[in-house]
Design brief:
- This protein is of the alpha/beta class and 524 residues long.
- It has 18 helices and 12 strands.
- Among the domains are: 150 residues, no CATH class; 201 residues, 3-Layer(aba) Sandwich (Rossmann fold).
- It has a 6-stranded mixed beta sheet with strand order 8-9-10-6-11-12, with helices on both faces. The protein has a 4-stranded mixed beta sheet with strand order 3-7-4-5.
């Protein structure tokens, strides 16, 4: 049996390595906040959601839409999904109680282990069947209808009766019936486990057996002679020899039952893994809904189409960490390769940049996004180049460190990447930083790279503005006349000032600000 809730035709591979820039993505996009909200204290959900989200770059359109449909069913019936996840988790915990370890090479131990574990699994399989009988008609997605159809088809009453019968037979309560042949040197060969034929015992058969016991004479028909022997209680060597004979006979059936048990265990393990992602999605959806965040299932389009349009896009991680409602933003960057965001300090530029990265990751792994609408091309990699603060671990200057990280990104560049720049190359003077950034961005644009860039480098922004042929979108952080920030981004050409004086005055007061310089260049 296969769950196939993350892929239509294959299991999700938890062993796949994470992207090389995993650490940078987690840090720059504040992904740990997202993972924590999805896990809600469940370490297994935390590990699975981290993997599924960070490995979303390999998903095609069909996979994303398949997961979106499965997710919609999960959001409509969260209690059923959580119940299924709990059953799968309990089954895996039960497996830990029946640890076999290295004893699997002993047929008798392997057989006992498999019988006990399969007996426990039967109870959980029956629970899954009951859930399918009660709730299957409420789910409409291809993934869920296929899953429930498998449960109903393969876990019918005949299956449970057959498994119980075979498990009882394999306990060998009346001993194991074996046959063998004499091989070379009169050694036993071709050991075969035989199915015993038990005669149903009645009052008549018991009476005849009693008469035969005392008379030592066969009754009614001549019975074939039966040859037997009895071991002395202290004959340890004989006991070991018989045990070895028994192991030879039951070896094949013990191995077959062990494989069947492991198959059922793997089914529960994969079911738990795939449901963990959807449980995480339900947890996050409920948390964002309590914050009043708008959410939608995004519209992915094929890679290379240069699509990026959004309405009411919020930063999920910021919303989770704040008490008040966060501000959403609109933008239409369809068929535009470069988005440059400028404007007032503390105006929401970096928050917007992060929200785009988060939404892209969420979309590509099949999740909802915190927006009224979101449409974007698929990207086979997201790369972040954020300003870093100096620390004692740096072996060179900040500019050298930024260039080194940029070189590493170029070495790992993919066919359809998205790169997020956040105040990059500001470690040197504006003219030099602008020129370095201009050359790097221009080279990336020739490779059809989608770029969203937040910058305070006016010369950089002005240069792209003057040479704009319609492939660059300029957004500016809104600032009201009194200096108040709305945290909304509007389309607008870059200004020479970032209004740093507003921030200075908010800390030290307006009078202190008048005593200092009030030139636009200084504020920038």
């Amino acid at each position: 049996m296969k769950a196939h809730l993350l892929h239509a035709d294959q299991d999700f591979d938890l062993r796949r390595p994470l992207p090389w820039n995993e650490e940078a993505l987690v840090r720059d996009l504040s992904l740990n906040t997202l993972f924590t909200a999805m896990a809600r204290g469940d370490a297994f959900v935390l590990g699975v959601t981290r993997k599924v989200i960070l490995l979303g770059f390999d998903n095609d359109l069909a996979t994303i839409r398949y997961r979106q449909n499965v997710l919609q069913d999960c959001l409509n019936h969260p209690a059923v999904v959580r119940r299924l996840y709990a059953v799968a988790g309990e089954a895996m915990e039960q497996q830990k109680k029946h640890y076999l370890g290295s004893l699997d090479r002993y047929p008798d131990w392997a057989l006992r282990y498999s019988i006990e574990l399969m007996q426990a699994f039967l109870g959980f399989l029956r629970t899954l069947r009951k859930i399918a009988d009660s709730h299957a008609d409420k789910f409409v997605s291809e993934g869920w209808t296929g899953f429930y159809a498998i449960l109903k088809r393969e876990l019918d009453d005949e299956y449970f009766a057959g498994v119980r019968y075979h498990l009882e037979q394999l306990r060998f309560r009346r001993g194991a019936l074996l046959s063998a042949e004499l091989g070379t040197g009169n050694k036993g060969d071709h050991y075969v486990l035989r199915k015993p034929i038990y005669q149903k015992e009645t009052w008549l058969t018991r009476l005849l057996a009693l008469i035969r016991r005392f008379t030592q004479q066969p009754l009614f028909t001549q019975q074939p002679p039966i040859y037997s022997f009895t071991l002395h209680p202290r004959d340890e060597a004989g006991a070991r020899a018989l045990a070895e004979l028994r192991d030879r006979g039951i070896g094949l059936v013990a191995n077959a039952l062990l494989q069947a048990t492991e198959h059922v265990r793997d089914f529960f393990g994969m079911l738990r893994t795939e449901l963990a992602f959807y449980v995480g999605c339900v947890n996050l959806h409920e948390a964002l809904d309590r914050k009043g965040v708008s959410m939608c299932l995004p519209a992915p389009v094929a890679a290379g189409e240069r699509r990026l349009s959004l309405q009411g896009l919020s930063n999920a991680c910021l919303a989770l960490s704040m008490d008040q409602r966060v501000v959403g933003n609109d933008a239409d960057a369809d068929r535009q390769a470069l988005v440059i965001v400028t404007g007032a300090n503390t105006g929401g530029k970096s928050v917007f940049l992060q929200s785009v990265g988060l939404a892209q990751l969420m979309m590509q792994c099949g999740m909802f996004v915190p927006a009224r609408s979101y449409c974007s091309s698929l990207h086979d990699g997201i790369f972040t180049h954020y300003k870093r603060e100096e620390d004692t671990g740096m072996k060179s200057g900040k500019l050298d460190e930024e260039l080194s990280r940029m070189s590493e990104i170029v070495e790992h560049i993919t066919s359809y990447p998205m790169i997020l720049f956040n105040e990059s190359f500001a470690a040197t003077n504006e003219r030099e930083g602008s020129e370095i950034a201009r050359q790097i961005i221009s080279a990336l644009l020739t490779r059809q790279v989608k770029i969203v860039c937040v910058t305070h480098l006016y010369e950089l922004a002005r240069g792209f503005c003057e040479g704009n042929t319609g492939n660059v979108l300029f957004l500016r952080a809104d600032r009201q006349a009194d200096g108040a920030r709305t945290f909304k981004l509007v389309e607008g050409e870059p200004l020479r000032t970032s209004f740093g004086e507003d921030l200075y005055n908010s800390i030290f007061g307006s009078e202190a600000g008048h005593r200092g310089t009030d030139t636009p260049a200084a504020a920038a």
